[in-house]
Specification:
2 domains, two-stranded antiparallel sheet, mainly alpha, 8 helices, rod-shaped
């Protein structure tokens, strides 16, 4: 229901109390709006003022979530590096044959480097598909706050998706760089001698 502010100010009589909740596009302007409404004679409080403990809890949760995600990313990049090193070790004979047939170190390096990029892209696509499936299954998180409910939807925005794509490719590239370098430096004579 929309009511003119002058009409609302003049229409309040007796013991009646009206409460109006406003949703802002820019939440950082809430304090400015509170001051402005105060100058107009209304008692106004921002959601941050009324639910300060919840906001502090959310900030702490964000910090610990970021620490957990950073730990998971380090462990996963070490796992990717381990898989690529094992792949290189298991393909020593094939790499030796390719080098004996005339493949250059750069060509071998590029094969493993492109393989790392393909793995990174495949992991990214699987991760996005899984996150979309989970977010659609959950829908939104609902919290009971201040005599009402707060619904927090899951949002996947383009900058986040592009940033995570860049990070996935960076981790795959850095994790597999050493493996690709080792594969390109194999001496075919030494590999064939032990087979």
């Amino acid at each position: 229901m929309y009511v003119d502010l002058d009409l609302a100010r003049g229409g309040v009589v007796g013991e009646l109390e009206y409460r109006v909740a406003l949703r802002l596009r820019d939440t950082s302007s809430a304090d400015m709006l509170v001051r402005r409404l105060g100058r107009m004679g209304f008692e106004a409080r921002s959601w941050g003022e009324m639910a300060g403990n919840i906001l502090r809890l959310i900030e702490e949760e964000k910090f610990f979530s970021n620490v957990l995600m950073a730990t998971i990313l380090v462990i996963s990049s070490l796992s990717i590096m381990n898989v690529m090193l094992m792949l290189t070790e298991s393909r020593k004979k094939s790499i030796g044959v390719l080098k004996a047939l005339g493949s250059t170190s750069l060509e071998i390096f590029m094969v493993y480097f492109l393989l790392a990029l393909i793995y990174g892209l495949a992991g990214y696509l699987l991760g996005v598909a899984a996150s979309l499936a989970v977010s659609r299954a959950l829908g939104a998180i609902s919290i009971e706050v201040l005599q009402g409910g707060l619904r927090i939807p899951f949002i996947l925005d383009t900058p986040l998706l592009l940033g995570s794509l860049g990070y996935a490719l960076l981790v795959a590239t850095l994790s597999c760089g050493y493996s690709a370098y080792r594969a390109s430096r194999l001496n075919p004579v030494e590999v064939m001698r032990f087979e």
